[in-house]
Amino acid sequence: QLQLVESGGGLVQPGGSLRLSCGASGFTLGNYAIGWFRQAPGKEREGVSCIRSSGGSTHYVDSVKGRFTISRDNAKNTVYLQMNSLKPEDTAVYYCAANKDYYSDYRGACYGMHSWGKGTLVTVSS
After folding, report:
1. Residue 12 in contact with residue 20, Cβ under 8 Å?
2. What distance separates the 2 farthest-apart alpha carbons in the chain?
3. At a CB cut-off of 8 Å and minimum separation 6, what does 112 contact?
4. Quick check: helix, strand or coil at residue 31?
């Protein structure tokens, strides 16, 4: 089981920005596809954004397109999720996850990860 650790969550006002980080313990993140997922209270977990190991292919669920950017710095063994123009409906626990590859649906949501971090809470509220 791969160990992933998220950081960067917190409380932010609507319209604000946060950058989440996903670090790896004991393995090379650059060899894996990484995804960011979120789960709000009472809702199912949703694949927000994913990036393949090469970094050349990314996917975003429709609700975050144009606002969120996923990127990876393999030298730092870290994947980031830059979140801009945050909305109250972005409030959720955000998880990063890994697998050799993933698949996505017509909405851009990604699936198929098997190793998960413990999550970081993002709260968007005034």
Report:
1. no
2. 39
3. 99, 101, 102, 103
4. helix
